[in-house]
Design a protein that fits this description.
Layout lengths: L9 E12 L2 E12 L3 E5 L6 H9 L6 E6 L2 E2 L5 H7 L1 E3 L12 H13 L8 H14 L15 H14 L4 E5 L7 H18 L2 E5 L3 H7 L2 E6 L2 E6 L1 H4 L3 H7 L9
Parallel strand pairs: 3-8, 3-9, 6-7, 7-8
Antiparallel strand pairs: 1-2, 1-4, 4-5, 9-10
Length: 257
């Protein structure tokens, strides 16, 4: 089919999103469209609004203004469970396992919770099988009785990914999944993200401070600073943008990675 006849499906659309905390504007007039199957990087200095934007998309926070659309439906202000059931999953900067449950049980909950918004019934047996599948997929080596407090930092981040994937998302909001990892672990986690998009067909928005890893994987980068989009484009274009360099380093001659 000629490229001109290929219809691009917009999976996520943000239109004029604003979020205020008292008189502080955490987000200001954010408008962004994410295509189905895209691997998008979202970067910016600390406090630029990246996690706030994830919280708005996932329903943790209600925007002060603007509209969030997912697969053509207005999801603005829906609760997180409803948005998850529609196919949006996320990880958190600080892993949040349920410490009284095993690693397998944590991921099983993701499978059972994600399935609760669908018409088919997901048995515990099926949930356990799926949990083990996703634990293996992210490269987490655990036994059936392994507890979250036995995991390393890298293991906890893998658990976050496995639990999110168990909800069967079509859009994954990945929040600093390689933060605090060593170089070998960063390469492994980056490879897993790539496989999630390529093998599972999941659209990804990735927030990360380790620029080298992010820039080598994503197709497009959006840069936030003080709650506003200051740049957008291919990694090679954004990395040399004067506004981006100044936002990160304040020195025009340096690059962001």
């Amino acid at each position: 089919m000629p490229p001109s006849l290929i219809q691009v499906l917009i999976m996520l659309s943000l239109d004029g999103i604003g979020k205020f905390f008292g008189g502080l504007a955490a987000l200001s007039d954010i408008s962004l469209k994410v295509e189905e199957g895209e691997f998008l990087g979202l970067i910016g200095p600390n406090g630029s609004g990246k996690t706030t934007l994830f919280n708005v998309i996932s329903g943790v926070l209600k925007p002060s203004s603007g509209r969030v659309s997912f697969m053509g439906a207005d999801i603005t202000g829906l609760y997180p469970d409803k948005i998850c059931h529609l196919g949006v999953a996320r990880t958190f900067q600080i892993p949040r396992p349920l410490k009284d449950l095993t690693v397998v049980e944590n991921v099983m909950l993701g499978a059972l919770f994600g399935d609760s918004g669908r018409s088919t019934y997901h048995s515990e047996e099926t949930a356990k099988r799926d949990a083990i599948k996703y634990i293996d997929f992210v490269g987490l080596k655990v036994g059936e009785l392994t507890m979250p407090d036995e995991l390393t930092a890298a293991g906890l981040r893998k658990l976050e990914l496995a639990r999110a994937l168990a909800t069967s998302p079509t859009l994954l909001l990945a929040d600093e999944v390689i933060s605090g990892l060593n170089q070998e672990e960063i390469l492994e986690a980056s490879s897993v993200l790539n496989r999630i998009r390529d093998e599972m067909g999941v659209t990804i928005i990735w927030v990360e401070h380790i620029m080298g890893a992010l820039m080598s994987l994503v197709e497009r980068v959006v840069v936030l600073d003080y709650g506003k989009i200051i740049a957008e484009g291919k990694p090679s274009e954004v990395s040399g943008d004067k506004r981006v360099v100044e936002a990160y380093l304040g020195e025009e001659e340096q690059e962001v990675y």
